Amino acid sequence: MSDTTASTTLRPPRLAVGPVAWLRTRLFSSWWSTVVTLVLLYVVIRLGITLLDWGVLRAVWSVPMKGNAPDPSACRVADAGACWAVIGEKYRFILFGRYPFYEQWRPAICVVLFIALYIVSALRYFWNKWLAWIWTGTLIVIFVLMWGGILGMTYVPQDEWGGLPITLILTTFGGTLAFPLGIVVALGRRATSMPAVRAVCIVYVELVRGVPLVALLFMASVMFPLFMPEGLNPDKLLRAQVALILFAAAYLAEVIRGGLQAVPKGQYEAADALGLSYWQKMRLIILPQALRIVIPPLVNLFNSLFKDTSLVLIIGIFDLLSAGKIAFADPTWQGFGYEVYIVLAAIYFVFCFAMSKYSAGLEQDFSRAKRR
Prior knowledge:
Blueprint lengths: L17 H9 L4 H27 L7 E2 L2 E2 L14 H12 L8 H18 L6 H19 L16 H26 L5 H15 L3 H11 L12 H27 L2 H9 L4 H16 L1 H14 L11 H8 L9 H35 L1
Antiparallel strand pairs: 1-2
């Protein structure tokens, strides 16, 4: 008899692994789970069929011209679905606001540059001193394109800016400048050896968090020029930008302070034992760990800042949402706001979802490195 015997590899039963096991474990593990799954599945299917019928099958994608104006009468018949023709007619106003029609290639390039800047900043290959130069050069090009007045481009004042470029400008500068300010305020609030600095930081954070952003925008619009030298009157965009920076910095400071408190005390003691100065300790040891801990709430704040830019309408700045509201306020297209809001929601969702997915990947990478 041979010493070696043939062995066969037994596969696990189908009900233990694979899609069937996943469905059984996650969706049909008990009778109440099965009921909830079936009810939700019914609701999703009914909702999907309704949206498909309204948004695709019975939708009106274009309308004929009546003279020099579009005729949306086809969208007003009883059995008509979504009137996507309003997007085809108004998309340039939604995206670029009152920017001169024949110059809208300039804000379109600016939007592409902003997206490219975000992508480059997300790549670790560019996490070096060159990233600051890339940001500086790109922002200079963006403002040259938006303002014009040189290289044969027509000058366009800020009062005519609007749409998506305004939203990206306010979000980019608001988040970029609020972040270092939030770090300084968080450190100042924990500076027990400097009670005056600590008191100022506490008052600032509590005061800003205690009032709505609308109030800050009004104060920046009305009171900010009073602190400027005589004859210097900053425009509305700069006033709104200052309000957003101060508002975001206060919330960022509290998030970062939570991260600083979560860093083990032994890290502080180890840094002191190495003879590092305060700023070396914070820059090299404490802050990197604290920021890694608070990545989810930081991204949540940046997402909120991106959406809160819609409030600048109250001081006469027309961002993406404001431009969309004005677009369907046109008497020709009144009654088709749902379509515009769906497109606007899709734009906001794409930007916010991209930030959330990137932060989730970044958090996993940092967690993996920490486990190693």
